[in-house]
Amino acid sequence: MSAVAMQDFDERVVSPSTEHLLRWAAAADDYSPIHFDRAVAQARGFEEPLVHGTWKAAVLRRLLVSWLGPDCVIRDLSVRYLKPDAVGRALRFGGRLVSATPVDDGSTELRCSVWVRDEDDRVTVEGECVATAEPDGVDGLPLDRLRAAVRLGQAAGTFTYRVEENDVAAFAEAIGATAGTSAPATYFAALDPVERRDLNLDSFLHRLPYPMTGGGNAFNEVTYERPIRVGDVITVTTRYTEVYEKAGSRGTLLFRVRINEMRDQTGALVATSRCGHVLSFRLDRGGDEQ
Fold first, then answer.
1. For residues 46 and 34, what is the distance between their CA atoms, to the nearest angstrom?
2. pLDDT, tens digit, for every residue of 124-171?
3. Could you tell me which CATH number the domain at 143-281 has?
4. Which helix (H) or strand (E) is 81 found in, with range?
5. Class of the 2-133 domain?
6. pLDDT in tens, 229-247
7. pTM for the full model?
8. Pick from 136, 134, 255, 149: nearest CA to 202
9. With contact defined as beta carbons under 8 Å apart, do 260 and 193 qualify?
10. What order do you get walking across the sheet with 233-248 strand by strand?
11. Per-residue confidence at 4, pLDDT binned at 50, 70, 90?
12. Is 231 left (phi over 0), alpha (psi -120 to 50) or beta?
């Protein structure tokens, strides 16, 4: 993508006015008088009211969106306020692309440095940004990219969970069952790394340039060797086995099927679950559904 080739971003000059800061104060609910009352600012040793640090951070983020382009998603922005800036003084907002690293899911991780300089060329704000750049030329659902991202046919991740009494009791209460030393038969879902958000290899699907028209669990199957019990230490290994698409009434359906193998602290197999998840996309990117 074009942003990968960039090094320095074009600096932008912005002169924050009292009106800017009053609008920001209303939006942020920050009415500290040092930002708009000259007498208060001078009583604290400043010539003029001071610009909100969060306003400067917001301007940097807005500029990052224009610098990086529409195919990038900002994941993290952290800033440090080094010096105060006075209202009415011109500020230069700038940044630099520091690195571009390919990611297994086909996207590119971008790391940027950003700054604000005052009229004397002093850095008053500095920070870092992490963004994700999607590959160019997305046409249809990226099945090959998805298969690579979830490591189709291989172990995608291994996680260990201790089965606590209070967790089993809360789960039983939620489904209207009676709590005991053995977990309810459906408790396997509470040990699914994907459902627990411990394993998330396909988040880029939510950034595809197509309207998402639905999604959810397609099916859940489990084979028990024995009940899951309070005190068990269960190691779960997740492996994706199928990625495919098919036509649906609300668009194109994208299925991901995974198997979770659950073993206890002795290494004995406790259960195997097979889970399917589906997302629905309208690939025409707009217009009426057919």
1. 9
2. 999 999 998 877 656 789 898 899 999 999 999 999 999 999 999 999
3. 3.10.129.10
4. strand 72-81
5. alpha beta
6. 999 999 999 999 999 999 9
7. 0.62
8. 149
9. yes
10. 155-162, 233-248, 251-263, 269-281, 212-224
11. very low
12. left
**Which tokens in the block code for residue 203?**
């988040």
Task: Read off the tokens for 278.
Answer: 């589906």
Is residue 16 within 8 Å of residue 88, measured between CB atoms? Answer: yes
Neighbouring-strand partners of residue 95: 114
State how far the alpha carbon of 180 is from the alpha carbons of 160, 167, 200, 274, in Å. Answer: 22, 11, 32, 25
Look-up of token digits 């086995």:
241
Token pair, residue 28, equals 């942020």
176's CB contacts (< 8 A; 6+ apart) are none
Q: How many CB atoms lie within 10 A of CB 142?
A: 19
pLDDT in tens, 12-29: 999 999 888 889 988 888
Residue whose pair of structure tokens reads 């086909």 in the numeric block: 106
Longest dimension (CA), the chain: 76
Residue 43 and residue 120 in contact, taking contact as beta carbons nearer than 8 Å: no
Read off the tokens for 63: 């500029």
Tokens coding 230: 């309070």
Among 144, 168, 141, which residue's Cα sits nearest to residue 252?
141
Distance CA 289, CA 150 (A): 30
Instruction: Name the segment(s) of the chain with CATH classification 3.10.129.10.
Output: 2-133, 143-281
